[in-house]
Design brief:
Structural class: mainly alpha
Number of helices: 9
Largest sheet: none
Shape: globular
Strand content: under 5%
């Protein structure tokens, strides 16, 4: 019993300390990076801390006056760690795609192409883990189009439209008297339809 008690203590103590660091980081933005990094090191299994750390560095990058890809590199490493800890969560793949897309915007030439390719793979992984999300397929389509992959872009724009159409039909059937709520968003839905139509008419494989 004593050994069991000690095992539970030493097993749960780091987890509790990690949770404490996360709680403090949410209240103390100035020290959030170091607190979240400590939480990542204390609890080697929970994806929460690396996910929050990655989002923090993305927020810092997006709010900075000057481009700092070092912040993107930190965000990348944390999201990859979160994926290692929970490979089934689509959100970390989606966040990783955001990192690479931002990195592509800050790059030129071969580096831009490389980051777009990474963004595409991350977005595709997100969509494959949550195939019912039109939003994720739309993201895949946009990046595929940037890469010049017109056939893939057409497929993913069409898939986003199909998912939204199915959702709208189900919504009308379940709530005939209510105003339609678009899960994808009307602007994105129309964009996906227009892109799919244009690519279908003029794209080459």
């Amino acid at each position: 019993i004593l050994l069991l008690g000690l095992s539970l203590f030493y097993g749960l103590f780091p987890v509790a300390r990690a949770a404490s660091r996360i709680s403090r980081a949410m209240k103390d933005i100035g020290h959030a990076p170091e607190l979240l990094d400590q939480a990542v090191q204390l609890d080697k299994l929970d994806p929460t801390a690396p996910n929050l750390a990655g989002r923090l560095y993305m927020r810092q990058y997006e709010g900075a006056e000057q481009t700092n890809t070092g912040l993107l590199a930190r965000a990348e490493s944390y999201f990859r760690e979160a994926i290692t800890r929970d490979p089934a969560d689509f959100k970390n793949y989606e966040n990783l795609a955001r990192v690479y897309s931002s990195w592509a915007e800050a790059s030129q030439g071969p580096d831009k192409e490389k980051m777009l390719a990474k963004a595409f793979q991350a977005a595709l992984s997100a969509a494959e883990h949550y195939p019912g999300s039109g939003r994720l397929w739309l993201t895949c389509a946009k990046i595929a189009e940037q890469l010049g992959r017109k056939k893939a872009a057409l497929e993913y724009y069409s898939r986003a439209v199909e998912i939204e159409d199915a959702y709208r039909a189900q919504f009308k059937q379940m709530y005939p008297d209510k105003e339609l709520f678009s899960r994808l968003g009307e602007a994105k839905y129309q964009l996906a339809k227009q892109k799919a139509k244009a690519l279908s008419a003029g794209a080459t494989p």
